[in-house]
Amino acid sequence: MIPLKDINPTRTVPFFTISLIVINCLVFIFQMVKGLDQSVLEYGSIPYFVTHPASRETVYRDIPVRYRTLFGERTGIQQVEVERPRSGAFGSLLTSMFLHGGIFHLVINMLFLWVFGDNIEDTFGHAKFLFFYLICGVGAAFTHVLFHPEALVPMVGASGAISGIMGAYFLMFPRARVLTLVPFFFFLHFVELPAFIFLGIWFLFQLISLGAPTSVAFLAHIGGFIIGLALTGLFRRRRRPPGNPEFRYG
After folding, report:
1. Which of 49, 90, 101, 215 is most deeply buried (CB count within 10 A of its CB)?
2. How confident is the model over 142-192, as pLDDT tens digits?
3. Between the CA of residue 99 and those of 77, 161, 209, what are the distances in Å?
4. Rounded distance between C-alpha atoms, residue 64 and residue 81, angstroms
5. Predicted confidence (pLDDT) per residue in 48-97, tens digit
6. Exposure of 130 by Cβ count < 10 A (0-12 exposed, 13-18 middle, 19+ buried)?
7. Measured between alpha carbons, how far is residue 56 from residues 89, 199, 215 in Å?
8. Are 193 and 178 within 8 A, CB to CB?
9. Which residues contact 111 (CB under 8 A, 6 or more apart)?
10. Can you name the CATH fold of 2-57+86-239?
């Protein structure tokens, strides 16, 4: 399911939501110029270095691999060389939030941020929204690290931070309507779903996907969502600003 827009008015211009989208796009252009794989290795979050902050700048690890031969499948050992991220062991938890593994990864994340971010920024206030976004992103990355402490594969993406925003949206706007694109075999359907149904299905999908043979960090999504749920009460403004400004739909 892909959210296209939410039917939920806001009272303010989502300055930081727009800014974050622009920054992520600019960083992706930087990645393309530098080299996608190289930028991920240099600034992505590598769990091993977070859990071993005193380790050397370069780690050599023997990992088991499987390969096919004329006589069937065989197993062996391959030595992997991994360098500490340029942003440092803990700094990479922050820098990884602004990197993406491909254009589709970027577009989907930015779409989710645009649909759900403006209402959260409107409710929290601009500065609190940015702080909330960064906390959820770092917390989501650290959740991934806790469950994969020896992993040498970099993790990147804004998904964890956006998952936190979705957790806040789930609590504050459960009945808001979300225009959703639902693929069904060879057909595409457009339906309006209450936010609690859309986000509930999304969260359930993250849970059932744990352990699947994929490069998606589902634990980071789950961690970000739960952190967003937990922090919403601290960041939410009790009252909307006075006046009758024009409404805007995200």
Report:
1. 49
2. 999 999 998 888 899 999 999 999 999 999 999 999 998 887 777 788 888
3. 30, 12, 23
4. 14
5. 889 988 777 777 666 665 666 556 666 666 666 778 888 887 899 999 99
6. middle
7. 11, 42, 26
8. yes
9. 2, 3, 4
10. Rhomboid-like fold (1.20.1540)
Q: Are 135 and 223 in contact (CB under 8 A)?
A: no
The number of beta carbons lying within 10 Å of the beta carbon of residue 158 is 28
Q: Which residues of 61-80 are buried (b: 16+ CB within 10 A; e: fewer)?
A: eeeeeeeeeeeeeeeeeeee
Q: What is the pTM of this model?
A: 0.83
Distances (CA, A) of 97 to 23, 57, 92, 201: 11, 22, 8, 24
Tell me the H-state helices in the chain. 15-34, 36-43, 47-51, 92-95, 103-124, 126-147, 159-172, 195-208, 218-235
d(CA 46, CA 117): 27
> Token digits for 199?
């986000």
Find tokens 């500065």 and name the residue.
127
The gap between the terminal CA atoms of the chain, to the nearest Å, is: 18
